[in-house]
């Protein structure tokens, strides 16, 4: 008789829709919440536990037509590693967060490279995680402002996600993620305060009902996935951003959950 080797742990993994990825990805970005910006902004990376960030930089590129491709910010991550839980959190201030990050998360906090105003304004921009960067802030990588990069001063792109401002002129709002083999949000119909991946890797954009220092609650009226499908907070396992902690997941549809339960039960029963 054929032996099945599906373990209980594997079944639980399927049911929880956890996606383990060896590569480092951009996981969450809080751009420009309502109210005060400074002290609220962060980005989070996810990868293998204790993975070194040596040689990596987080780069923010402008996507506005009159400054397309300008390097707005550069964050040198070489001095850091991911935490033992596989997470790295960069903040614009070491102030208190509520809830506090997982103690296993590596947390960095350094001055903004270009200082105030907010480094993550919710305008057209692209976030790149790159290795071997040779560019500096204010360098222009799209000299003719046509939305196509003319130079790529890095060895490789590890991850990228782009946003376009909702200002009524979509032809003049650029994003560069797709050009580099990754993702861009279309114009969402609102200017997102935050973007995040759920635990299975799907990108979402949302406004934030901000409490300075957190918790940063999702706005149920303005929450879409990267395909612009409207989503509801009720579809997620949490209601807030999770800086420095495990991301929220989609709650499986009852039918999907039931099928997974049945499949795992049958497999376990047939295991001898």
What does this protein structure show overall?
10% of the residues lie in helices and 26% in strands. With 272 residues, the protein is mainly β. A seven-stranded mixed β-sheet has the order 6-5-2-1-10-11-12, with no helix packed on it. A five-stranded mixed β-sheet has the order 4-3-7-8-9, with no helix packed on it. α1 runs antiparallel to α2 (254-270). The longest helix has 17 residues, at 254-270. The chain starts with 7 loop residues before the first helix and ends with a helix. Residues 1-22 and 256-260 have low confidence and may be disordered.
Which percent band covers the strand fraction? 25-35%
Low-pLDDT windows of residues: 1-22, 256-260
C-alpha geometry: globular
Percent helix, as a range, is: under 10%
Instruction: Give the domain tally.
Output: 2
Q: SSE string, helix = H, strand = E? A: HEEEEEEEEEEEEH
- Tell me the span between the first and last alpha carbons: 9 Å
Strand order of the largest sheet: 6-5-2-1-10-11-12
Described by its quaternary structure, the protein is single chain
Helix tally?
A: 2
Q: Count the strands?
A: 12
- Quick one: biggest sheet? 7 strands, mixed
Radius of gyration: 20 Å
Query: Helix- and strand-based class?
Result: mainly beta
Overall mean pLDDT: 83
Layout of helices and strands, plus pairs?
Elements: H1 8-16, E1 25-30, E2 42-46, E3 56-62, E4 71-76, E5 87-91, E6 106-109, E7 125-131, E8 156-163, E9 183-184, E10 194-197, E11 203-209, E12 217-225, H2 254-270
Parallel strand pairs: 5-6, 8-9
Antiparallel strand pairs: 1-2, 1-10, 2-5, 3-4, 3-7, 7-8, 10-11, 11-12
